[in-house]
Write a structure and sequence with these properties.
Strand content of chain A: over 45%
Number of helices of chain B: 0
Shape of chain A: globular
Strand content of chain B: over 45%
Largest sheet of chain B: 7 strands, mixed
Structural class of chain B: mainly beta
Number of helices of chain A: 0
Largest sheet of chain A: 6 strands, mixed
Oligomer: heterodimer
Shape of chain B: globular
Order of helices and strands of chain B: EEEEEEEEEEEEE
Chain lengths: ~110, ~120
């Protein structure tokens, strides 16, 4: 069974600084997708960034980038120039190619200090 | 389109009662998913539909749970004989199948169920 592990229950960063959220996963599949989702307080979950396992290049979306290490089964999220609006729960998720249910980690609560 | 909507947003029920939740996906999306999220945990996949067909069910979906998607539009999730352990946030998501793959799942705001 696939598992996703987020070892940091909570992280805190000063506004404008950079923070990295960790995620590791366990799978025997070779074709899969990895995602980071953001869930602000009392608001719905939104996709931050997606990485296809077959792509060696790390995905980037504006201030958000990932460090995808396939051999190590690691998928960390880097947030640059942190803003107050980045405060949320961040979930790492995994999906096998051809399957559709997402497997989520337990989440990391990100606090932005003004 | 205003995104995925869910109704009700909150539901309090007594143990043993039946409850039904509704999800309206983004109109052009042909895939619809249900997840359950308990406090301090990430969402757990329950089931998904492609159009009106229910294609996959998790082991988490006990016999007391049933989901439908008549006509491939909105979906309902019913829980019969609710138990306190059913208390959770129930999330709905939808996506568009593009060829072999569907990519981004768009989530609704969820229905928070409290069983007393």
């Amino acid at each position: 069974a696939q598992t996703v592990t987020q070892s940091q229950p909570e992280m805190s960063v000063q506004e404008a600084e950079t923070v990295t959220l960790s995620c590791t996963y366990d799978t025997s599949e070779s074709d899969y997708y990895l995602f980071w989702y953001k869930q602000p307080p009392s608001r719905q979950m939104i996709l931050v960034i997606r990485q296809e396992a077959y792509k060696q290049q790390n995905a980037t979306e504006n201030r958000f980038s990932v460090n995808f290490q396939k051999a190590a089964k690691s998928f960390s999220l880097k947030i640059s120039d942190s803003q107050l609006g980045d405060a949320a729960m961040y979930f790492c998720a995994y999906k096998v190619l051809g399957a559709d249910g997402l497997t989520f980690g337990k989440g990391t609560h990100l606090i932005i200090q003004p | 389109d205003t995104g995925v909507s869910q109704d009700p947003r909150h539901k309090i029920t007594k143990r043993g009662q039946n409850v039904t939740f509704r999800c309206d996906p983004i109109s052009e999306h042909n895939r619809l998913y249900w997840y359950r999220q308990t406090l301090g945990q990430g969402p757990e996949f329950l089931t998904y539909f492609q159009n009106e067909a229910q294609l996959e069910k998790s082991r988490l979906l006990s016999d007391r749970f049933s989901a439908e998607r008549p006509k491939g539009s909105f979906s309902t999730l019913e829980i019969q004989r609710t138990e306190q352990g059913d208390s959770a946030m129930y999330l709905c998501a939808s996506s568009l199948l593009d060829g072999r793959e569907s990519y981004e799942q768009y989530f609704g705001p969820g229905t928070r169920l409290t069983v007393t």
